[in-house]
Amino acid sequence: MTRQALVEPSISYAVERSARRTIGLYVERDGGVLVRAPQSTTDERIAAVIKAKQKWIYRAQARWAALNPQHAQREFVSGETIYFLGRPHRLDFRLDAAPVVLLEGELFILRTADRPRAESLLRDFYRSAGQDRLPELVQMHSVSMGLTPARIRIQELGHRWGSCSEAGTLNFHWKAMALPLEVLHYLVVHELAHLGQRDHSPNFWRLVEREMPDWRTHAKWLDFHGAQMTL
Ligand SMILES: [Zn+2]
Questions:
Q1: How far is the CA of 128 from the centre of ligand 1 (A)?
Q2: Residue 74: which pLDDT band, with cuts at 50, 70 and 90?
Q3: Is the pLDDT of residue 12 over 90?
Q4: 25 C-alpha vs ligand 1 centroid, how far in Å?
Q5: What is the pLDDT of residue 223?
Q6: Beta strands in the chain (DSSP E)
Q7: How far is the CA of 198 from the centre of ligand 1 (A)?
Q8: Is the pLDDT of residue 6 over 70?
Q9: How far is the centre of ligand 1, averaged over its atoms, from the C-alpha of 3 (Å)?
């Protein structure tokens, strides 16, 4: 058995070659990626497999990180992981960075001098990302569901991900932008459905299900991982 760490855009992984016949990919509890491969497998072949499975790896890593309570203790230091649209990104504080939050690939780049206010800068970043992206998602489902909100707001909602006011305003928590896109869709469908049915009665869930037959998967994901999806 040999272990080596290779680096493929932001995923580092260990390789164990053995007498097995197929390549197996494992994301371990600490988020580490392990590849088990037949002796004859080339490094290139393994890199290609990692690349093809990138999405799955990120998702699996996000799952483990979400379950790992030490991530709840945020320090806002370089290398720390935060989630954006369901994918882990690393904080990268740089002396010469611009006085804004810059999202570059898998990095959130901030100026070192801004570290004390990193939390509020990131919160603003999520809020404006929500303002950019949520109206489009709402519009898309609004058309197919035949339910139109009066307006959309992105704000601090405490422990709720979203809400629907009497006046037909859909509110979304800024931290919803940390969620995977498909879960964000579910959130949008859920709040839009409240325009047709205020409570969580069977009629409400029928509205949700008509628009999103697999809503249960996303609702479950949110129950299980939601609490950890924060700054
Ligand atoms: Zn609801």
A1: 24
A2: confident
A3: no
A4: 37
A5: 85
A6: 5-8, 11-18, 24-27, 33-38, 81-84, 87-94, 102-104, 107-111, 151-155, 162-164, 169-173
A7: 8
A8: no
A9: 48
